[in-house]
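Collaboration report, partner site 2.

Our partner group contributed sequences for two proteins of shared interest, and the home lab folded both. The records are reproduced in the order in which they were received, starting with the first partner submission.
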Amino acid sequence: MVTAMKKKSEPEHSPSPTPERAIYGFVLYLFGIIGLCLYIIWAFIPLSWLEAVGLTYWPQKYWAFAAPVYGSVAFVFIIIFYVASNFLLTAPCDSMQTITDKFAKTIKTDLPEGCVPPIGDMDISEVNRILYMENN
């Protein structure tokens, strides 16, 4: 019974806002807005105007448009490589890792038509038949 009760010294973990989270979120929001404003100034205001104000060191304008494009392409490739790595790491159907054990709950196949089957483990060959066999 003692293990079921929480100790009073342990903090409760909840997703609700706390003052620390609110401050961090607000500071992150401010940095994001400031960064966006600096990016827009850098990308769209002519370099001669910036130099007239006294802002002399800026990266080349090429990077104002190339960096977001590189980031977008990198994001697409990350998604593609993530899916590909999942395919490579999945065990084949004849692997010892896909064989069921004595604790698996099998599903009855002789259920009435239109009935929702109970939750249980399906045989891998049954899953493959349902997913990949063409119903001609």
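Second partner submission, folded after the first:
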Amino acid sequence: MALRRLEKPELPAVKICLWEDLTFSGMDIIQKASTTEEIKQALHQLLSVSLDGTDPRAAILLDLYVYTLQFAKSHRFNKEQTSGFFSIVKRLHQACTGTPLGNVKECFDYFLELVLCNSVRRPPFSVDLFNAEQVKLVTDYVLDTYFRHFKLYKYVFTPQLRLDLSLCYQGMPETPPAVEEEMPVVDQDEVPPEETEPQGEQAAAPGHELRQYIEAQLAEQVSELKTSIEGRIQAGEQQLNLKLAALEKSKGAKSPRAKKK
């Protein structure tokens, strides 16, 4: 099977998020919802969000949307600001879960561009949905909630990857791929006892040879180390004897008998 290199997908283009997911009439339904359950029912009606409590992905996604709307409501965002902020969070989540590879820096830059696109009046490229204070509120909220749990969202909503590692050493032939062979099923009663023993010896032969080779190499290294240590000890003894002889000679020269003429 041909191997395909896994690369990060390109993020969608940055654009104005006003009325993208929650339309004007949809915001009327959202604003009429006063409790958490009513907001969930409204999201299910408008965006077909699953209400299955047994599905962990659906429950996490639903909580993400509900908390986003509750944050906008607690800071008194109007319909346009709530719709734009909801779409920014939704687009950020899609960018995060679009690949199992790590892309937190790309997603953060993408989020900042989305906020900037909806905070500066420059039609038709951007609009001023949020003022400077609201931009700070939105940025702090997303940093403290979504990016704080970025890896958890990616773990839940993206497939896991398995790494197949192969090493190639210079000067050694490549190992051929393993070939699975079907082994015939043989009844143990039909195999003569004298035929089973040689097979066991043959199976153990490669391991026995490897053990002998390792023991021989260890013995050779231990012998070399022992010879080196003995040589250092002899050299140290010779230097010590020379120093003692020089010290005795100097003491003899300083004795009273040596000073008499």
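Feedback sent to the partner group on the second submission included the following. Strands lie at 119-122, 126-128. The longest strand covers residues 119-122.
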